[in-house]
Amino acid sequence: MTEPEIYASEVRYEVDREGKVPAGQALFVSEEPGLIVATFRPGEASETLCEQLNVVSRHIFRNGLWATRWGADESTEPSEHTLLKVRFEILPADAFPEVLVCLPRDRPGEFVWFIRDPHMSQQACDECNAYLEKSIRAGLWVQRWHRGEGETERFFFPDELEDP
User: Fold this and answer.
1) How many C-alpha atoms does 52 have within 13 Å on its Cβ side?
2) Contact, 10 vs 61, CB < 8 A?
3) Secondary structure letter of residue 2 according to DSSP
4) Which of 58, 83, 90, 134 is the most exposed place for a label (fewest CB within 10 A)?
5) Which domain of life does the protein's organism represent (predicted)?
């Protein structure tokens, strides 16, 4: 078995304008090497949330903090940097500063997207988590930490990141 290639990627979030999301679902995910697009049915995730998720995702991939192992599947041996836990979690609005609708937390082996209620439906959250669980089992995501810097946790504030 050959080792999957590791690429920097782009992950994009959008609200469906073209009828891509199948009936009864909140989310449709398309994948191709270098690009993953998560499309939400209207009303399942807000435009503001998608914008902030995109800002953070661009920052993460452009700065080499994560990469993807295209071609990985459930038989692929995990790398030491393969993410073990990734999830979306909806929290009450009062848990966030007023300008934020998402607050991502990155730790070695774990990444959590904290989402401000009501910017994502529970169905969309559950479907995102099901997709992430499947892709984690396949070893798709690789997390990169700078050794020796003593970093144990990173938070990304979408309103503070440069977004060209």
Assistant:
1) 22
2) yes
3) P
4) 134
5) Bacteria
